[in-house]
Amino acid sequence: MRTRTTALAAGALALVTLTGCGAADMTRQASPYAAAEGAKTVTLSVQSWVGAQANVAVAKYLLEHELGYRVDTVQVDEVPAWDALSQGRVDALLEDWGHPEQEQRYVEDKKTIAPGGELGVTGHIGWFVPTYFAEAHPDVTDWKNLDKYADRLRTAESGGKGQLLDGSPSYVTNDKALVKNLGLDYKVVFAGSEAAQITQIKQFAKEKKPFLTYWYKPQWLFEKVPMTEVKLPAYKEGCDADPDKVACAYPHTPLRKFLNADFAEKGGEAAAFLKKFRWTTEAQNEVALMIAEQKLSPEEAAEKWVKANEPTWRAWLP
Questions:
Q1: Residue-wise pLDDT tens digits, 189-216
Q2: What is the rounded distance in angstroms from the CA atom of residue 96 to the CA atom of residue 108?
Q3: Interatomic CA distance for residues 185 and 314, integer angstroms
Q4: Exposed, middle or buried, 309 (CB in 10 Å: 0-12/13-18/19+)?
Q5: Beta strands 162-166 and 41-46: pairing type?
């Protein structure tokens, strides 16, 4: 699932899709290095949120500096990334938040994509309010009381309803269905990207204004703007099976890696390394914070982390 656009590694190609539903296959614009015959190259898919960029930055740095690969990165939205991976236009996807339809199609049926193991990070999407507002109004953390505060959460974009701020329409989100099925007096408003959503959240926080936002963990912003989760109806297995009827919370999802099946089998040291790449939420947040808040380039952030954490990454090398 996810979530979750900030600085990318130099030379990244941006792929743009009209929606996140995967109807358009834009993968023909993918890297010219993908599946280059006989070349020691790797192409990594980069998702638009900074945590995913942190994964790729560190993997790219180690592949280049420790294993001698040339690494290209390509930004692709979540669902089209599976198409690109299946076709061999990218070799690896390092952070997937759960796409059961694509997994069934490409891993189970077509067998063009292979599991690459868990990333070591557990992801969770939810609705959040700023902690300063939750402390002043503790009952706002129960979804049943949200309508009580709808008038305080209105914006020009939400009209006469309260605003539920989302990021990019391409992210996995049940929010429109949740608002409808829970009968809430709110309107989902898309900021357009993670970066735009962060800018809006920071502005609200600077002015100490209340807000309700779709957000996710792990994410470095919690260190800058403390937020408290709103309790939605408890998640139960299968409660989100029908996208139109969802009326439950988002699950906690162990984030996973996926590799192109041919690359997984024949990718040598690069494939072996990516399968072993596994780190913690804290490590990912550390690198993400350097990229997004300290404005280091992905390579600079990766180099700084690598120099300080050799015992961790040595275990990933084949």
A1: 999 999 999 999 999 999 999 999 999 9
A2: 16
A3: 52
A4: middle
A5: unpaired
Mean pLDDT of the chain: 89
Q: What is the pTM of this model?
A: 0.77
Instruction: Say yes or no to pLDDT of 39 above 70.
Output: no
- Encoding tokens for residue 9? 């590694």
> How do beta strands 92-96 and 41-46 pair?
parallel
Structure tokens at 163: 């605003």
Helix (H), strand (E), coil (C) string for the chain:
CCCCCCCCCCCCEECCCCCCCCCCCCHHHCCCCCCCCCCCEEEEEECCCHHHHHHHHHHHHHHHHCCCCEEEEEECCHHHHHHHHHHCCCCEEEEECCCHHHHHHHHHHCCCEEEEEEEEEEEEEEEEEEHHHHHHCHHHHEHHHHHHHHHHHECCCCCCCEEEEECCCCCCCCHHHHHHHCCCCEEEEECCCHHHHHHHHHHHHHCCCCCEEEEEECCHHHHCCCEEEEECCCCCCCCCCCCCCCCCCCCEEEEEEEEEHHHHHHCHHHHHHHHHCCCCHHHHHHHHHHHHCCCCCHHHHHHHHHHHCHHHHHCCCC
